[in-house]
Write a structure and sequence with these properties.
Radius of gyration of chain A: 22 Å
Low-confidence stretches of chain A: none
Low-confidence stretches of chain B: none
Shape of chain A: globular
Order of helices and strands of chain B: HHHHHHHHHHHH
Strand order of the largest sheet of chain A: 1-5-4-3
Largest sheet of chain A: 4 strands, antiparallel
Largest interface: A-B, 32 and 31 residues
Radius of gyration of chain B: 19 Å
CATH class of the largest domain in chain A: Mainly Alpha
Distance between the termini of chain A: 36 Å
Mean pLDDT of chain B: 90
Strand content of chain A: 15-25%
Helix content of chain A: 25-40%
Number of domains of chain B: 1
Shape of chain B: globular
Largest sheet of chain B: none
Oligomer: heterodimer
Structural class of chain A: alpha+beta
Number of helices of chain B: 12
Distance between the termini of chain B: 39 Å
Mean pLDDT of chain A: 90
Number of helices of chain A: 16
């Protein structure tokens, strides 16, 4: 027996056989209908099936119902693109084409995403030669005109940052169009995970994006727990949430410092750089790694927080909180700073919704998207009600979301440390259920992280899909630059602070 | 004459990098850091002058002329302006026009050198630098006309002569105060300081002056840095003399007042850079037009 559509919760899983394969036309109609009915595409990916056919899977998040809808279809060499009617699919469809050599016909901007070779050798959507493609080797959108000029930035940048290429079409100082080309750090992560879980899988997933160790790590742990049918103890869930919020604090504080550095506002830039280190050191208290590496275990966590350590962390947190509030409030109290942030790099709520932005960037545009609120698991279930929304959509809004989330996370972390529930740290994980599909959402500091895993008949991964929030938010940065001054690009870029390697995978 | 020339050059060449060190130290203290040693700029210059030249094959002599002119011009301009109460070694009627346009010449060569590289960044920086300097020029000229009107002469020596002490107490003190503010803004714009430009940024898209010199390295870059330090001191001399117009009668104490004034100015620049964020690029012309209007108003006050 199989249904046309499966409804599940975050951290849940279903037997693959219960999910019916819809004809593509029905699949497309159902997908568009559900997205129009207040849905968002959380993940859209393919799994190679029998010869020359691909199975498409779509995960649609119904936020206010707290549900995830699953759709499944099957296509051959090509299929009509849905991007013209549902723009948030634009990168997903390009990714499908690149990974499996299928052609979404009618895609308005059909180009490779990461410049990787097709998973199915001999099949290439662009008919390129079989040797490995050169990243960035493609035509960019061009504006022609007497006074129009093109500015190319990267992939090698002046600062110590990740590589990415930015192509601006400018009229004087005004940016008419920005195109972002990434893929320079493609590691083939999704391909590495097939056949897993291996002993290295957790370490690989912790480094999907180096600054989101706990975020991606917990998404992976939730997948395994769901496939193994275990639930983590309240204590382990609370400790995971503690680590996740410390990660959020460190990154948000670092970001505000970096924003201050970009606009030449010295005091906050200097202080936040140091305070970020204080939060990282608190993470190091948990597990010995400043980035939280090795803290998580499928089934729970690897390290406990004894009452003495909790008291010590609370004490240190009090001092760090004072310093944080001082540095952050100074930033938001300075008129020259506000003049620089307000009205800069605006993204409209329609554009944000259309492109399917998530996380801070979406919340700064007035969209209420927070997996901790809508799809809560573990410590967040029933306890989280403090979602931060700003509506201006500009650099100020994105900074202010960070400021308010810093204060909320501080309160949350202190609450957890004062009253850690009892329970085991981690249990043994039984073998994974074969022929199962599991979905896991985690609200990392940057936004919603989606992991989807499918297992074969022996409980090994046949496909592991990772959707980093950066994958969806880079388009938001490109939109934010339309009509802006090119000199404001670094500030806009920093206000999004997206991951390159999380995108490149 | 020869001793005056020597004193002028020694003061300029020895003290200029120190001012950069003072700015950096002030900013470090505001940021809660120890900061680089005061004499670090001297070491940086020594390091750069020990290196070899690297030139892109696509550039021509124009690219090489940029740093040379950038270093020579402040030296020439320094000979035209009194350092505090120490009169300028070279002086003639109307030298204020030469003083203003010597810097324009340097700018022309720096911008031409930037364009010579063919890089889109450098072209953008050159366009910005030239635009903002154009807008800063009227302010500087109006301020000098106010001073000329007060002194009755047309050479910088008479403009910044001993009459300033009495002028501050007279009815024209308000006009002097206004042009002092205007000249301070021009000083910050011309020397690419916050809030108009950020000399420390690594973000090539937001740079104005720094992006024009990205392709220079080694001794050529050393010349540019030294030239920039000299320029800060020469333009600063205008502000310092206006703010501290004392005559002590002894050349030693006059030099001391001058150097002290320059150090105070460097601290002031450091403070401004520490407590302000950079302006959006589109706001800079508005501010410069504002200072032009203020300097015109100062002129109206003295013509009344």
């Amino acid at each position: 027996m199989s249904d046309a559509m499966a409804i599940m919760k975050n951290g849940g899983s279903i037997p693959l056989s219960t999910l019916g394969v819809l004809p593509y036309a029905d699949f497309a109609e159902a997908l568009l209908f559900e997205v129009a009915e207040q849905g968002r595409v959380a993940a859209y990916f393919a799994v190679p099936a029998a010869e020359e056919t691909l199975e498409l899977f779509a995960v649609i998040a119904k936020d206010w119902r707290g549900e995830l809808l699953l759709l499944r279809s099957s296509v051959g060499k090509s299929f009509p693109a849905l991007t013209p009617r549902c723009p948030q699919l634009h990168l997903f469809e390009r990714e499908l084409a690149e990974q499996y050599g299928v052609v979404p016909e009618g895609h308005p901007w059909f180009k490779p995403v990461r410049f990787q070779s097709s998973y199915r050798s001999g099949l290439d959507a662009w008919g390129r030669s079989p040797q490995h493609p050169v990243p960035g080797d493609m035509e960019f959108y061009r504006v022609e005109g007497e006074e129009v000029h093109e500015v190319a930035v990267g992939p090698v940048h002046a600062g110590v940052i990740e590589p990415g290429h930015f192509r601006f079409q400018c009229h004087g100082e005004e940016v008419m169009h920005l195109e972002i080309s990434l893929g320079y750090q493609h590691r083939g992560l999704e391909a590495l995970l097939v056949g897993g879980p291996h002993r290295a899988t957790l370490a690989q997933l912790e480094t999907v994006a180096g600054d989101t160790t706990i975020g991606h790590g917990s998404a992976y742990c939730q997948i395994l727990e769901s496939l193994a049918g275990v639930t983590v103890s309240p204590r382990a869930a609370a400790l995971r949430s503690l680590a996740l919020e410390l990660e959020r604090l460190a990154n948000h504080v670092g970001d505000i410092g970096a924003l201050a550095g970009d606009i030449g506002f010295l005091p906050t830039a200097a202080f936040c750089g140091r305070i970020r280190g204080d939060y990282l050191n608190l993470s190091a208290e948990l597990c010995g790694s400043r980035f939280g590496r090795g803290f998580l275990r499928p089934g729970g966590v690897a390290f406990d927080v004894e009452p003495a350590l909790a008291a010590k962390m609370l004490q240190r947190l009090a001092a760090v909180e004072r310093a944080t509030r001082g540095a952050v409030e100074l930033f938001f109290d300075t008129p020259s700073v506000l003049a620089r942030l307000e009205g800069c790099g605006r993204v409209s709520v329609d554009a944000a919704e259309g492109l399917g932005l998530v996380g801070m960037a979406a919340r700064a545009c007035g969209l209420t998207i927070d997996a901790r609120l809508h799809h809560p698991v573990g410590a967040y279930a029933g306890g989280f009600d403090h979602v931060v929304i700003e509506d201006a959509g500009d650099v100020f809004a994105r900074s202010n979301v960070r400021r308010r989330e810093i204060y909320d996370s501080l309160a949350w972390v202190k609450g957890l440390l004062r009253d850690l529930p009892a329970g085991a740290l981690a249990g043994e994980l039984p073998v994974l259920t074969p022929g199962q599909l599991a979905v896991s959402l985690v609200e990392g500091w940057r936004g919603e992280i989606v992991h989807v895993a499918l297992t074969d008949e022996s409980g090994r991964f046949t496909r592991y899909k990772i959707v980093d929030p950066s994958f969806r938010n880079w388009s938001g940065l490109a939109m934010a630059l339309r009509g802006e001054q090119i000199s404001d690009f670094p500030l806009c870029n920093k206000s999004f602070n997206l991951s390159y390697c999380g995108f490149d995978l | 004459m020869a001793s005056r020339l020597l004193l002028h050059l020694v003061l300029l060449l020895c003290c200029a990098p120190l001012l950069q060190g003072v700015i950096v130290k002030t900013k470090a203290l505001f940021a809660g850091r120890v900061g680089a040693p005061l004499l670090q700029p001297y070491r940086d210059l020594a390091r750069l002058f020990r290196k070899g030249f690297v030139f892109s094959r696509t550039t021509t002599w124009v690219f090489r002329a940029g740093p040379v002119v950038g270093l020579t011009v402040p030296l020439l301009a320094a000979l035209l302006i009194p350092f505090g109460a120490l009169p300028a070694p070279l002086s003639f009627e109307g030298d204020l026009i030469l003083f203003v346009y010597l810097f324009a010449l340097a700018r022309f060569f720096t911008a031409a050198a930037a364009l010579d590289t063919g890089s889109s960044f450098e072209g953008m920086g050159a366009a910005r630098e030239v635009t903002f300097s154009c807008l800063a020029e009227p302010t500087l000229l109006f301020a000098l006309i106010v001073l000329a009107k007060l002194s009755g002469g047309l050479s910088l020596n008479s403009l910044l002569g001993p009459h300033l002490t009495t002028a501050w107490r007279g009815p024209y003190a308000a006009a002097l105060g206004l042009i002092l503010v205007c000249l301070l803004v021009v000083l910050l714009v011309e020397n690419s300081r916050i809030p108009f430009d950020d000399p420390n940024t690594h973000l090539e898209l937001t740079m104005i002056h720094e992006v024009m010199v990205l392709d220079h390295s080694g001794p050529a870059f050393g010349m540019i840095l030294y030239g920039a330090a000299l320029k800060l001191m020469v333009l600063g001399a205008l502000v310092v003399r206006l703010a501290l117009p004392w005559q002590t009668g002894s050349w030693f104490f006059d030099a001391l007042v001058f150097v002290g004034g320059q150090l105070l100015l460097a601290v002031l620049i450091g403070v401004v850079e520490s407590i302000m964020a950079r302006l959006r690029l589109v706001r800079i012309p508005q501010i410069l037009i504002g200072t032009t209007l203020i300097s015109i108003f100062a002129l109206v006050l003295v013509l009344r």
